[in-house]
Amino acid sequence: MSSPLPEFPAGFTWGVSTSAYQIEGATSEDGRGPSIWDSFTHRPGTVVDGSTGDVACDHYHRYAEDVALLAGLGVGAYRFSIAWPRIQPDGTGPANPGGLGFYDRLVDGLLDRGIDPVATLFHWDLPQALEDKGGWLTRDTAGRFADYAALVAGRLGDRVKLWITLNEPFVHMSYGYGLGLHAPGRQYLFDAFPVAHHQLLGHGLAVTALRALTGSPIGITNNYTPVRVQGVTDADRAAGATYHALHNRLFTDPILGHGYPEIPGTDPSIVHPGDLDTIAAPIDALGVNYYNPTGVRAPSDPDSPLPFDLVPLDAYPTTSFGWPVDPDGLHELLTGLRREYGDRLPPIHITEGGCSYDDTLDAHGRCHDPQRVAYLDGHLRALHRAMTDGVDVRGYYVWSLLDNFEWAEGYTKRFGLVHVDFDTLTRTPKTSYAWFRDTVTGPA
Ligand code: FCB
Fold first, then answer.
1. Percent of the chain beyond pLDDT 70?
2. In angstroms, rounded to a whole number, what is the distance separating the alpha carbons of residues 214 and 163?
3. CATH classification of 13-441, choosing from 3.30.2130.10, 3.30.360.10, 1.20.1440.20, 3.20.20.80?
4. What is the pLDDT of residues 265-302, one digit of tens each?
5. Are 96 and 87 in contact (CB under 8 A)?
6. Does the pLDDT of residue 264 top 90, yes or no?
7. 13, 77 contact by CB (below 8 A)
8. Positive or negative, the Cα torsion across 92, 192, 336, 332?
9. Nearest ligand 1 atom to alpha carbon 168
10. Which atom of ligand 1 has the smallest separation from the CA of 407?
11. pLDDT, position 443
12. Does the predicted model carry a pTM greater than 0.85?
């Protein structure tokens, strides 16, 4: 932080990210149907502080105030997600005008302030009615997703500047259907593989549907992690390779036309002829979310249901989430993507990066978060190095604009550039907000 940040190219996009269930609240207003996250959070024992997204940041009612905060930040783009159950309360059928109307107002509000709307179509809040029919374990959900994408693009296709089909399908599969830590709370371990295939199929079908309705670039957002093998045996290295295939390659190889990586325990029979072509529909952008590297070694228990153990990386400082802070990991993963996929790699947009700390207001009502400033400073330098080393990166979006509902962690993890008091819903920009504003807008 001692020296000024290196200069990013003209046209580089600075932004911030949020997602619908984490900020909107108003879960039964204007015709919104229930999502799997409503059902999950209302089940006791699923969220550490027993909270739900029923109110969250109340963004649904306070979006104008939040758009003003974005304008004050000086960002060129805002990535938000659209709640599928607002658009199709039961996951099928015609669009609900109340739901579309909300995003219409949000998009126009952003454009009025010169901020590019970046829309994610699926950030994990599947309509509960579709989950009742099997959710992403069912092939039909892929087609439903493409129908929904078309309804949204039919209304917003002229104004959204970048479309992201899915957010982190790996996390949705593994946490939601593999381990049961997220909605819908299923624990199928490797039998959750159909969730990967059907999300990918839904992505491919949606890309094709969107193409007909928008001239804006289309992509997908994946979560990537550099794998740090913690051990010296062949078995440790093999465990590392398996984890890399599962976390980093499963949702990238098929999209970039390489088919599926080999992953022990998965059943390829659900892949129909032609599916891989559908999934490989050309995209214009790869969204990369990076938070931390992952330590992996061979399972210590021979009866382990998983072919690897995930182990803490003790050599790094950690955030309040316990996530290791390693800016070099961002450089490593970006240059690794370039090496692995070469010219097939579309331009990259860092659609999320950020950290949680126990931010509080001081006696003067200010929120000082120097650790977040240091985190972002370090990661932007690492990003710049990767770009100098030839990786085509077009933008960086901080997770998140606001402290919000952090899934199974409830309101106990604060990722915002803006502090939110969850009793009063008062927003207070943190030190990092001012720092990011100065980064975005250049020296005064
Ligand atoms: C990512 C999610 C996002 C948020 C951050 C902290 O995995 O996409 O919704 O929870 O982690």
1. 99
2. 9
3. 3.20.20.80
4. 788 889 999 999 999 999 999 999 999 999 999 999 99
5. yes
6. no
7. yes
8. positive
9. 8
10. 10
11. 63
12. yes
